[in-house]
Amino acid sequence: MIQFRIQPDSEIPASAQLFNQIRFAIASRQYPPGYKLPSTRALAMQTGLHRNTISKVYRQLEDDGFVESLAGSGIYVRAQGHEGGSKLQSPILKEYPDAYKIVQQALDELLGKGCSLNQARELFLAEIDWRLRCSAQVLVPVPSEDMGAGELMVYELEQALKIPVQLVAMEELAAVLDKTSSATVVTSRYFINDVEAIAAPKAVRVIPLDIYDYSKELNLLKTLPKENCVGIVSLSSGIARGAEVILHGLRGDELLVMTCQPKDTYKLQAIVKRAEVIVSDQASFPAVQAAVQASMEDIIRPPKLIKVDNYIGANSINLLKRELGLS
User: Fold this and answer.
1) What are phi and psi of 304, to 5 degrees?
2) Which pTM was predicted?
3) pLDDT score of 181
4) Which of 33-47, 49-63, 90-104, 249-263 has the lowest mean pLDDT?
5) DSSP secondary structure string, 73-86?
6) Structural domain boundaries enclosing 222
7) Start and end of every HTH gntR-type domain (predicted)?
8) Is residue 9 a part of any domain in this protein?
9) pLDDT confidence tier of residue 238, bands split at 50, 70 and 90
10) Which residue among 179, 193, 269, 302 is buried most deeply as judged by most CB within 10 Å?
11) Cα-atom radius of gyration of the chain, to the nearest Å?
């Protein structure tokens, strides 16, 4: 923080001293456009001036066009002259004070690499247009034998992105892409090679999703006593099979592992009555809870229920939001 100093024995009024020092900080770019000025309380503690005096100085700075006040947020240095840019003046700067700085840095980098202003403009507009069109239709393709994995991805993506997401059998993806002018294809890394082979000839962007590492759940299952029974309930039969293989690799035959999909009522009831621990994905969890409740009279000790909060990794969700212009 810049240290402002007030000379109490000066002939120059204290408010004028502070005004000129802040104006110099702005002019010398120590306080660049978009910078948030200290609160009146913080400045009062630093200078010894009354907060009313500082408020008066801030009002004068605003009247002279050096700063602007954003209700509930604070006092910010205004962009001067061309700095704001015709497209970045209020209200955008009021909502995103650092917007101009970010755009300017990106533009400076392009110009530094030899790009002309017209070329930079085309690049910005093309990327914005691309993201707007791609976010209009998001497709999730999976093999038809494991549509449950796709249902799980769609469930989580719609919750996170707040936009419609379409599930497509991989065998039908080419036909679907023939009927659309723009879309973004999103799928798990398990299926990425097959999906890219279909989408690449059609110049459609494909974004791979990393899956959650399940470290918390696996660490718990490593500590279970021998001969315990573990139930795995998932929309995806592939995920359930994969979990069974991983658990066998960790514990061998020490644990009995039972798997099912939530729609398989008979198997789900068997798991509820036999398992000490049931691990379920978020979408299947209500069905597991209902099955436990329905079997309460037939079981001595209810199983411990573990809900896995996500199948898709958090970083992948954030990347996808940014790619689609939704962040």
Assistant:
1) -75, 125
2) 0.56
3) 65
4) 90-104
5) TEEEEPP-GGGG-T
6) 215-308
7) 12-80
8) no
9) confident
10) 269
11) 30
Which segments within the chain are labelled E, that is strand? 67-70, 74-77, 138-142, 165-169, 184-188, 205-209, 229-233, 256-260, 277-281, 304-308
pLDDT of residue 87: 45
| Angle in degrees, CA 277, 270, 237, rounded to 5 | 75
For residue 165, the one-letter residue type is V
What are 246's two structure tokens?
Answer: 């991983």
Query: Looking at the domain assignment, is residue 173 inside a domain?
Result: yes
Domain match, 272 and 258 both: yes
Rounded distance between C-alpha atoms, residue 201 and residue 174, angstroms: 10
Residue 206 lies in a domain: yes
Same domain, 291 and 233: yes
Cβ atoms 43, 17 nearer than 8 A: no
Q: For the chain, how many structural domains are there in total? A: 3
Mean pLDDT, rounded, for 199-216: 86
Q: What is the pLDDT of residues 136-149, one digit of tens each?
A: 578 999 999 989 99
pLDDT single digits (tens) 54-68: 999 999 999 988 898
